[in-house]
Amino acid sequence: MMLFMNSRERFFTALQHRTPDRPPLDIGATTLTSMSRNCQAALCGFLGLKGDPQPTNSGVDERILRWAGTDFRAVGGIPDLPSPFKRLISPTANVNCWGIRSELVDGQWQFTHSPLRGATVDDLSSFPWPEPRLDEQLLARWVAQAKDLRRDGRYAVIGEHPVFGVLELGCWMCGYDDFLMRLAGDHDFVREFFGRVLEIQMAVIEQYYSALGPYIDVTTCGDDFGMQTGPLISPHAFRTLVAPYFSARIKRTKELSNCLFFHHSCGSVFDLLDAIIECGVDIINPVQTSARDMQPERLKAAFGDRLAFWGAVDVQAFLPSATPEEVRRGVRSLVDVLGRDGGYVMAPGHNMQDDVPPANIAAWVEEFHRESL
After folding, report:
1. 159 and 220 Cβ atoms separated by less than 8 Å
2. Given CA atoms 328, 332, 334, 335 in this order, what sign does their dihedral have?
3. I need a labelling partner for 299 at 20 to 30 A (CA). Which of 42, 47, 68, 231 fits?
4. CA-CA distance, 62 to 78, in Å (whole number)?
5. Domains in the chain, please, with CATH?
6. pLDDT in tens, 300-341
7. pTM of the predicted model, to two decimals?
8. Residues in CB range of 60: below 8 A, 6 or more apart
């Protein structure tokens, strides 16, 4: 083990399932490991950080990333594609390029209209799908940022995912109840829908990773396959319906970028992890330890030689309610279990919200770096 590694060395050592000088840390580098505006403000006040925030791609103040010792910086994101749907209705309502309407309800954005609810297979042919064409100026700006980060060499560089996942889009565009019933009994519709989405995904990633690929070390991906008590669909349904499209996307992404593939799925996905690994996933996030079968010891024993874990610091119940000393013990336990023999990036198990006390974030970071010395 080296006495000291830079962030890229640390990350690649851990992802090779070898022991780095300390586990890589991600607090705030991505849109999946971020924190709310109020959480950031409270933390800055607690730390005595004054002055204007320094914006980053994830929306987290750069000063927080530096204080925490975050080993990553991210570029890119999900672009707005040309579409007849996209429009702002009011400050509290909009329609995105997929025709999904969102409204601000009690301070949270919620989907309120699914454009393909009740649709037939024939309706998919006439639906006005978004045009998979990226804005050249936006892409050039992302490439310039990625080049600067790679030239700087201090951080492992993340390319945020440029497309939504097939399963989540089905649930959003048809409604969860509608699409989950189709997954059980209308496979012709599901395959036609997934095929059309994959066609758009492939056109987008061709442009995105052809440009960003040489400068990124890992790319994120998001598609929730789990709920609190188990997977949304059976392993058989995943392998026969989702995996062909998911694996095709991953294969082409890696051909274009030669980077590691990080997949985000909330919930209990233990029963799907064999199939997810077979699709080409290298890293699973957010490691929702409060869900069924997602205990760190169980995950490490079953998949630790084939999969890396990114997350696991529970933001659902633990960080909001624990004492600082309990946080310190939890950090040590995760490093001991998931960090054993590498294969672990410590991060929050999703974005930290207003209810996370700044003292707990400070205790986490202090203990993490104390344990790493």
Report:
1. yes
2. positive
3. 68
4. 21
5. 7-81+116-372 (3.20.20.210)
6. 999 999 999 999 999 999 999 999 999 999 999 999 999 999
7. 0.96
8. 27, 28, 29, 34, 35, 40
